Amino acid sequence: MSLMKITKSRILGIVILATFVFPLAASAQQGESHIGKYTGHVGTGRQLYFRYCWGCHGFRGDGNGENGPYLNILPRNFVAATYKCRSTPTGTLPTDQDLVDSLVRGLNNSNMPSWITLTDQNRADLVAFIKTFSPRWKTDKPGDIINVPAEPALTVDSIKHGKELFTKLECWKCHGAEGRGDGPSASTLTDSNDQPIRPYNFAAGSRFKCGTSNHDLYKIFMTGLDGTPMPSFADVIKPEDAWDLVHYLRTLQVTHKSPELALWMSTKEGAEIVNAQRITGTPTGSGIKQ
Amino acid sequence: MSLCGQRAVKKRVSGVASCMLFGFLLLVFQFADSPPASGLPIPSIKVNALPAFARKYGMPCSSCHEAWPKLSPFGQAFKDNGYQMGNDRDAPIFQQPAYWPVTFRMTTFWHRESQNRTQVDDPANPPLGQMEGKITTHGFDWSGLDFHTAGTLAKNYSFYVLPASDNTASFHFEAVWARVDNILGSSWLNIKLGKFELDNLLSEKRILTLTNVAGTYANYHFQPLVSPGNLAGPGAVGEGLYTFGLGDNQVGLEWMGHSKDDRTRVSAAVLSSKDGQPGPVTGRGYNGFFAASRAFQLGRLGLQRIGAFAYIGQAPTFFQFTQTITTPVGTDANGVAVSSTATNPVGGTGIGNKGFYRDGLIGMWYFNKLDVTTMFFHGWDSAFLGSNTPANQLLPTGARAPTWNGGLFETHYNLNPQLILINRYELIRMSRQVFATNPENFGNEDVLTFGLRYYPFISSRAGFAYHSEYAILRQRGASPINGLNLTTSSLLLGFDFAF
After folding, report:
1. Upstream peptide bond of B69 is cis (omega within 30 degrees of 0)
2. Bigger pLDDT: B21 or A251?
């Protein structure tokens, strides 16, 4: 009887240690994340990761989850620590906030959904755990957040100048002359996993891979999308030119109402271009507008 | 016990689960002391978890389910979005052409059922003598089969069709609906038409327990008993026309709206008053169901959710028309044709509607791995419905509108995505009997349930769970002849699987 009591108490002790003490000890040894008032902890993040994320991103965070082979944009490889959506210069690590933003937003046109339903604390915990997969987080610091100057006033000249830049910078080679992602180089592009990747189709909608606003669009081509052929243009164009390009790119979203499109349509040249780009047909149910 | 203890020391969580399963098995053989009998009651399992979605999106069950079929907040948002992740890859056009969104679910099990006072023939007084006897039976069995097919027809057009059978493969449609989602681009505008589960915060279709006693929520299906010795409650054959269960799928039109993060949810539905049955069954009345809930973050404890619901209905009390049908059944010994006649009510002509309502409050409280669901429930039936009296007749002397209150307290300890411990206590207390002469506690119910589900693997292809559960129900004064307390218990151990 006493032997049984000892066994019971041992079991109880192990259960208590396993439930409360070991995770705390582990989290103390690893890093944390800091997003606003929330501090993310590795221990909780690990539990969340192995509930929600491992199916695609894999046990080791290398993007080789059991579903990896079936996805035509492979899941993010956290070991490589190369991230598309950042507010930091190309080649640098993103901030914790950048990673949380990706969790909240999801990545459009990929299998990565929005995790907006998780709590802020859950997302902070997940970020803390994701950072344990790569040694880069121990040796490097996130890059400095790029400066995004205030958006200048929208004018027809700004759009026209953006249109010139679109040609001059050879954006059309990948994105196509009408921004449909069908430029002459489009079919040859691959990402860092050597997987074919299609350039963004502006005509298909209003959401970008890394956001929806003009501010997001500015960041995309000033930071580049690391791991994809989309480079950073930070060293190529001035900030005011970048804003002109933003204004023009908005007009390529011919089915999405925006101030840029409205202004562009008010000009004879713009109206002719946009009307020519708008194609109507039988809806396929894909949600992609032509 | 010592074997159990050694296992727990040597193995990890799965060892603990196996140990608990082993404990339940011991319990089984302890209970299995009665002779087997025919006619085992079969648990009616109608619950939702769709590996077809896991296969479509490549996500593990644990993404959408805290423990399948119970939804996680992420899974609830996915459902509320019309089975869409919202990353512009939800439409079928983006899937492999061979993908077919079908899931089946079934359970094989051993179970033991017991009732202490069942109406049986009295062998000392044949042929019509009746007595109460305790029946205990056990054996191996299987559940009905659910064929879930659901998903998107196009972006913002979703559907759900669920042919379900009992364990003899007799099928019916448990759910059939189509939904237009995010109308005008707003998550607050979603319209569903068909037969569907009411949008209640506590979903009976995602219940974690499977036994006859606890496979449904007692509160959701309670209807007051009339009086001792007249125990065929409302809805029974030959009694009233009124049968209703808040947990039953209903037929109608639902508007549902939710915030982008799904923390605020509201819905309203107009429903045919026929408890989800196909065709013109009883009358032409319409009912309404309203629900709202709000989730909020409570520090590191996680997301808490509170909600309220109300079902306001009416039900016919008699049929306006009947129809006598004569059916030839053969010839007698003299060669004369023999026929039978039957007088049946004409479906859909039920009139004399009388009202009823159910309402309640639900809270879902999360304390990291422990979560607690609480519910307060209130019900009211018109005196006509409560006493099974047609509205064109006088109420029996002393008949009153019955009212009752109920409560639910359910805890889950979700040790990890693979293991969940379940405990539930439900109680129902009559606050006003149909007849004042009834004992105050007549028909009161208490249901206590313990369960464990262990998922040996979590994948994005299929699901499997070891299921162990014991539930006991006590109904005051409900024994069929003597009006004594009726106790029913159910023990189930099985394999619950879905693909």
Report:
1. yes
2. A251
Residues of A in contact with B417 (CB under 8 A): 50-51
- Please report the pLDDT score of residue A23 as a whole number: 43
Find the CB nearest A51 among B1, B63, B155.
B63
| pLDDT classification of A206: cutoffs 50, 70, 90 | confident
Query: What is the nearest CA distance from A237 to chain B, expressed in angstroms?
Result: 31
Q: Picking from A65-79, A209-223, A254-268, B108-122, which range would have the lowest pLDDT averaged per residue?
A: A65-79
Q: What are phi and psi of B281, to 5 degrees?
A: -90, -55
| SS3 per-residue string spanning B14-37 | HHHHHHHHHHHHHHHHHHCCCCCC
**Contact status, residue B438 vs residue B446, Cβ threshold 8 Å:** no
The answer to whether ipTM exceeds 0.85 is no
Q: What backbone torsions phi and psi does residue B42 show, to the nearest 5 degrees?
A: -110, 130
- Gap between the Cα atoms of B293 and A219, Å rounded: 38
Q: Do B299 and A121 touch (CB under 8 A)?
A: yes
- Comparing alpha-carbon positions, the chain B residue that sits nearest to A208 is B87
Residue B8 half-sphere exposure toward CB, CA atoms < 13 A:
24
Q: What is the mean pLDDT of chain B?
A: 86
- What value does the CA radius of gyration of chain B take, rounded to a whole number of Å? 24
All residue ranges of chain B with pLDDT < 50 are: 1-46, 231-239
Read off the pTM. 0.84
Of the candidates A55, A107, A283, the beta carbon closest to that of B460 is on: A55
3-class DSSP state for residue A97?
Answer: helix
d(CA B3, CA B11): 12
Minimal CA–CA distance to B457: which of B411, B412, B499? B499
Q: Is A120 helix (H, G, I), strand (E, B) or coil?
A: helix
Each residue's pLDDT tens digit, B194-242: 999 999 999 999 999 999 999 999 999 999 998 776 544 444 433 457 8
Contact predicate B304/B296, CB 8 Å: yes
pLDDT at position A16, please?
Answer: 54
The 3-state DSSP class for residue A75 equals coil
pLDDT at B57: 83
Residue B8, token pair as written in the block: 């727990």
Neighbours of B107 (CB within 10 A): 23
Contact list, A18 vs chain B (CB under 8 Å):
13
CA distances to B192, B205, B354, B395 from B390, rounded to whole Å, are 34, 33, 9, 8
- Helix %, strand %, coil % for chain A, to 5? 45, 5, 50
Contact B285, B355 (CB under 8 A): no
Of A167, A179, A158, residue with least CA distance to A263: A158
* Mutation target vs B (from A109, A117, A122; most B CBs, 10 A cutoff): A117
